[in-house]
Design a protein that fits this description.
Strand content: under 5%
Structural class: mainly alpha
CATH topology: Cytochrome Bc1 Complex, Chain D, domain 2
CATH superfamily: Cytochrome c-like domain
Number of strands: 0
Number of helices: 8
Largest sheet: none
Radius of gyration: 20 Å
């Protein structure tokens, strides 16, 4: 009986040690599916249409994954990929990518002068547009991706953020494009 207790305790100890490693391995395995589009080294295969997720804000990543999962943010690509992943695992995926380093790009050209309307972005996206609770990093995303995202908010195609549509509607398309070019050069 004593040997059974020792054996049982040993099994529990081994499982306790192995379970977090397996969970982390499971998240790393799930992240491999993301790499097909978002890139093995954090650089998306098409930065014009796919955002950088390495080093992005965890709260923002989780919200987007949650919204793809729930249907609050429709996507024929992302929704099927995350539908069968539990919300706790989606949070772990968000944390996994947030812990990565933002990919180093080739030295950008100096940013143009700050465009009209950019000041309102700083309140959430922070001084250097590197994001913070709960807003995403914008600095360094491609101008095409940023312009498309802003247009989607302005045209009510993307509605999973209560504030962004009104902010983007207040700007002209040329202002949004100037902001996108500025942010991509940071």
């Amino acid at each position: 009986m004593f040997r059974d207790r020792i054996f049982g305790a040993a099994v529990i100890a081994i499982l306790a040690a192995v379970t977090p490693a397996r969970a982390q391995d499971d998240i790393a395995a799930k992240a491999q599916a993301c790499a097909a589009c978002h890139g093995q080294n954090g650089v998306p295969i098409d930065p014009k249409t796919i955002p950088i997720i390495w080093g992005q804000q965890a709260s923002y990543l989780y919200k987007q994954l949650h919204d793809f999962h729930s249907g609050d943010r429709p996507s024929p690509v992302m929704a099927p990929l995350v539908k069968e992943i539990s919300l706790p695992q989606l949070r772990e995926l968000a944390n996994y990518f947030a812990a990565k380093t933002w990919p180093v790009a080739t030295p950008p050209a100096p940013p143009p002068s700050a465009p009209e309307g950019i000041a309102m972005c700083k309140a959430c996206h922070q001084q250097n547009f590197e994001g913070g609770q709960p807003a995403p990093r914008l600095a360094g995303l491609s101008s095409e991706y940023l312009a498309a995202a802003m247009r989607a908010f302005a045209d009510d195609q993307r509605t999973n953020n209560g504030d962004m549509p009104k902010f983007m509607k207040a700007l002209s398309e040329s202002q949004r494009d100037a902001i996108a070019r500025y942010l991509s050069a940071l």
